[in-house]
Amino acid sequence: MRAVTAPMPAFTPTEKPLPHSERAKQILAAHPDVRALFGRDRRSALWTVLLVACQVAIGCALAVSDAPWWAIVIAAYGFGAFANHALFVLIHDYTHNVVFKTARANRLGSIFANIAIVFPAAIGFRNHHLLHHKYLGMPGLDADVPTPGEARWVGNSWWRKILWLGMFWAVEALVRPTTVTAIRTVDRWVVFNAVSMAAAMAPIVWFFGWWPVAYLCLSTLFSLGVHPVGARSIQEHFVFSEGQETYSYYGPLNKLSFNMGYHNEHHDFPHVPWSRLPAVRACAPEFYDRLFYHRSWTKLLLHVLFSREFRLHNRIVRPMPEYKKGIIARRR
Question: What average pLDDT is seen over the chain?
């Protein structure tokens, strides 16, 4: 008698159009005052300078005080992860040009925010994130979608999930971008971003050694990994309610994360800066309160890591438009 092989898990396909533009139209029709929330918030530039200065100062202070390696790890997990995650959120606002008036100024602002993150991520994130908004859930265009091989390898194993999330920085930087051929992975701004990070780290290493850089790197790895704020990347688009593609988080850590949890609101209105995202929900509660949302990043983190029901396949995907396939084929 032949053994019955269980079907391989798969992503959930959909032919439905992107939900956010339609909901945004409905909200603006019902609440036209939401338009007043559009625009820039230059305070993000001040927060950028303060957070970068704070992180560099802490790293140098740890080096000067000859702190043991375990103290550096604790400082990076207990404080640095929150600071660098906040800087990632500010880079996100620079990406949507809601800090300065010109795209060039916003690119430069994001590169400055990148200093405490060390790894040159700002411009690469910008290039891929704008595609993510336009082509949500489309493999080959949306780098936020896990690759099939990545999802198969992780499966529902708790230790593989921990390893995957712990190495999420490498997945986002080295694996996912290779699936997107619609844009160049390396352009002159990406090169400038990398050169700027090397130039910023050089004097720190020269005067204080490698420990400050180690502190900053650990802060970055924890901010994207096995840490309460690391659950944010899982919260945003993995499916927790059938048919819903995007999820918000309305918990206390929004106060340390520049309201990054308001993700449905952000996708509906990407031209609203972080400081006004709660006002979007307040203006249109009948649209957002009926959606599934998360209350705790820590609870979500534990669920994701240890629930056998959660897999990376818990994503909604849609096919790439035919015209886009033709453009990509010609570029190859």
Answer: 93
Whether pTM exceeds 0.85: yes
CA distance 303 to 114: 31
Q: Where are the domains of the chain?
A: 12-331
Task: List, in order, residues 6 or more apart from 143 with CB less than 8 Å away.
Answer: 128, 131, 132, 172, 176, 177, 179, 180
pLDDT tens per residue across span 190-206: 999 999 999 999 999 99
**d(C-alpha 179, C-alpha 269), whole Å:** 27
Q: Other CB atoms closer than 10 Å to residue 27's CB: what's the count?
A: 20
Q: State the pLDDT at residue 8.
A: 59
For residue 323, the model assigns a pLDDT of 54
Q: Which of 131, 144, 127 is CA-nearest to residue 192?
A: 127
**Are the CB atoms for 49 and 108 separated by under 8 Å?**
no
Take residue 10 and report the two structure tokens written for it: 């798969």
Separation of CA 49 from chain center: 20
> Token pair for residue 41?
């918030």
Q: What is the DSSP string of 232-278?
A: HHHHHHS-SSTT----EE-SGGGGGTTTTT-HHHHHH-TTS-GGGHH
